[in-house]
Structures are given as structure tokens and as C-alpha cells.
Amino acid sequence: MKTLLLLSILAALAVAILCYESHESMESYEISPFINRRNANTFMSPQQRWRAKAQERIRERTKPAYEINREACDDFKLCERYAMVYGYNAAYNRYFRQRRGAK
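The structure assignment produced for this chain is given below.
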């Protein structure tokens, strides 16, 4: 009987601790997490947006070889599974490197 009383007190204490809501968690309700449509594009000026798009195009053109190989391997399911065990370099060599050498 004593253990049952002790367990119920511990359970009540655990519920009180876990369900306590501090005022810090209420701060998120004060500020709306969403921005209206009119202000959505004001984070970046048009010049910054253009510069970001240009940099993205440059990054896409000048990808390293390992990233191109990894993307090719990601598109082929067997290669992706093999890569999870042996790594992307070994998987690319097994599934794609042989085909290039045969051409």
C-alpha cells in the first residue's frame, strides 16, 4: 500500500512538472509567425535577388565532379542502395564508370 501511495505521488509530481507552462512559451503567441503578402518580398531588394539567382546559376554550372556523380547515383535506386553501404564513390564506379569506359 505504501508503494502504491508513493507511486501515485511520483506520478502526480511528474504530471505537474511536465504540464507546467512557463510564460516564455507564451511569447510566440504575441508575434504572428506569418508575414502578409505585401511584405513577403521586402526581405531582399531586387538587386540582391538578381545577384542570388546569378550565383545559383554559376554554382549549378561549376559543380564539382563528386557532386555530379552523387546526383547521378541518387537518380538510380540500385546505385543509391549500394551507396548507403559502400559509399557514393564506390557505387558510382560500379554502376556508371563501366558504361563510360565501354563507349
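Interim note for the steering committee: The chain has a mean pLDDT of 80. DSSP finds six helices and no strands in the chain.
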